[in-house]
Amino acid sequence: MLTVCFRFYRELNDFLPHRWRQRTFARDLPLPGSVKDAIESLGVPHTEVDLILVDGVSVDFGYRLRDGDRVSVYPVFESLDIEPLVRLRPEPLRNPRFVFDCHLGRLARYLRMLGFDTLFYRQCDDDTLLEISVSDGRILLSRDRGLLKRRRLRRGYFVRATRPRRQIAEVVERLQLQGKFRPFSRCIACNGPLHPVASQGVQHLLRENTRRYFRHFFQCRDCARVYWKGSHYQHMEQLVRTLAAE
């Protein structure tokens, strides 16, 4: 048996019971194990962690804990340069791409609206999601902590909010996506790329009022769905401006 003191910072406290949040607490561990296993046993997925200090010294996930260690655990740094230290997560993706579990369909549509390559399947098991994330280099977004603790997973994020509008604001802020928006460049239904199309080519797909009042259209290259700048577009455009400002 060994005793280790832990302190988690900022949003990592979201995963902890209230009695441990924003404070140092001691835990008795049955056997010497890795610091990664200890952190995840407390409920914090390793994909949320960017820096671990043991007695002030940076360590990696494989560090074997010893009796009396004091462990400080930090989330992603937004403004502090930690290059000289051990960075636990892979370098940020220049063009982030995503894959979602089955509980976040509305959030997936929001990210597609912003122009991000986003995969979402209504029926998809955890092993398949993990394989897609690892093989394609996609960030796995989920509300399943167990899935985010999988050892092979390198890029993942636990979505805290439960309402879609708050979820998209949270993801944009936490993953620093504001400068990467390419709004209305992807189909929100299937994720395919959109391209301008002549109105004559899509007349048979439109309702009478749409044909009468609109002249400029975009079509998905994959599923052939047609888009135009109606009232729905104005509402989405306002949301994009709000997210960029936030």
From TrEMBL:
The keyword Cell division does not apply. It comes from the Bacteria. The keyword Isomerase does not apply. Keywords: RNA-binding. InterPro entries: Mopterin_synth/thiamin_S_b (IPR016155), Mut7-C_RNAse_dom (IPR002782), Ub_Mut7C (IPR027798). PROSITE patterns: S4. This is Mut7-C RNAse domain-containing protein.
